[in-house]
């Protein structure tokens, strides 16, 4: 496999040809916010947090789904990118009912962390205040649509690592939401193995352990990458 | 609570979140809501929480009593007594107190800090700690925290003694306030312990007494609160008016809080506080029931002493450092009630849930709401006493201060928003029977 050389924020970087800009940037110690990316899962470029500028291309590209190329000049931290990232986070907050104070994931939430990272001190858009239900029908876990940002990490972890494909997405645009099986209550799902990987994968408090109280949902996501490595590479290393 | 929407927007939420959500009702007494909500959760899960968890919950509530009562007395109310009712309102606040009596102000501020520290050391933060949960508490007490609280107790007790002595000395000079700041007959409601009807702040049974000391209701399971308490909505206020059902509205006026708690209990159960209680009853209650709302201040100080002594007792419990502090359980009942004493009075949480534990209906009777009718009555009594010359259309400036002071006796939750540094806007109008304005005074 050949190596590619490129620059990220003016700094020369080399990467394997099958790596993405996000991989290369992280290897080079460049920090950029992500929400839908999770080590061990296929990237889908859903959240748009990792958008980068590439010289010669007049649109912004998601770093997680764009492969490196020879001579590429990548910028990850420009005024335009900062503006768009903040706008994206604000729109995520405006779309559903994210109330940190009463949330099981408060202080352990990737959306909250990203909000802080992009300097979101308020939301400039009108909140939509959609009416969403909480599904507590499962014996071990709960799902609160209000806190979902449609990153689809639950969908991918269930499909790619557990192999159950219980989760999927119903509807389009602002009406899209994740569902279990054929839009049944989670507790009635026939495919769910109750493995809890979706709980670990969820970046917010949308999917949580039943009985969790405020701030109590702490997740250990390294186990997912461990499983992936164990399965694909036969490496049982934590 | 209806107006702020808590009863409505909690619908559909998991019961485990309720302590965290309802805590946000208030920044001064969030612990009361956390505890009442956790207790409601215990009721729905039908669990018996570990003994250490109950002791730690009690300790946090006592920490809250200390900090909230210290705030009420030193920061908000003592400027009235020490600087005088007719003093300039711009200086009649905690800053004026610091200027006049820095030692007292410092002691009071440190006493409040002590209460806050108890809360923080147990729950991780001073305000809104998500610590008490259905089934118990999340974290046990650490050895370091135990030592820290124990070390600071003597200073806190000394401050309580200082404040009690100061207030007792002032009693002769505040006879007019004692007679006119809400001195009237009413009922008193509060929790007392199951055994011996001692002063209680966390659990126990409801007791109702009248102004002659007759016990109208005793040993009532708090789950049956709705048998004795009704609520009326008046068109002029967002605050509901709870009343004692058997007497109807508004005759069923009752008071809760420090004054009521000391009226309903037989004794406190700790030596220093019991001595203070006996003296309090002799000095201002003729040995029996104390009916003047001005004595809420005095009662608050007695309760600070009670809280500090009980914290000391709890710290010496052999299992206080036990790490078994949380019981598990699932939804076993579709309805639960949790009642505890908040610094301002009896607090009721009542939830209905579905079989998965999602909230279907919430009823909250918040401490200050219980005193609504009595607070209105107090304003009326102050107006009748201090407006002596209505025919000339004169309402003295000092009346406005006294109306504020009358409300402040109850230390209402509203104090957060109404007793700010500087001026409080107010309009006092005297109307005749036909509704004509005879006199008016406005402070912007």
Could you explain the architecture of this structure?
The complex is a heterodimer of chains A (about 240) and B (about 450). Chain A has about 240 residues and is of the alpha+beta class. Chain A has two domains: about 5-75, Ubiquitin-like (UB roll) (Roll), CATH 3.10.20; about 90-220, Alpha-Beta Plaits, CATH 3.30.70.20. Helices cover about 25% and strands about 15% of the residues of chain A. Chain A is built from six helices and ten strands; from the N terminus they run ββαβββααββαββαβα. A five-stranded mixed beta sheet of chain A has the order 2-1-5-3-4, with helices on one face. In chain A, strands 6-7-10 form a three-stranded antiparallel beta sheet. In chain A, β1 and β2 form a beta hairpin. The longest helix of chain A is centred in the middle third of the chain and has 17 residues, at about 80-95. Chain B is of the alpha+beta class and about 450 residues long. Chain B has a single domain (about 5-325), classed as Cytochrome-c3 Hydrogenase, chain B (Orthogonal Bundle). In chain B, about 45% of the residues lie in helices and about 15% in strands. In chain B, strands 5-4-3-8 form a four-stranded mixed beta sheet. Chain B has a three-stranded antiparallel beta sheet with strand order 9-10-11. In chain B, strands 1-2 form a two-stranded antiparallel ribbon. In chain B, β6 (about 230) and β7 form a beta hairpin. In chain B, α4 (about 50-85) packs antiparallel against α6 (about 100-125), α6 runs antiparallel to α7 and α13 packs antiparallel against α14. The interface of A and B includes residues 102, 103, 106 and 215 of A.
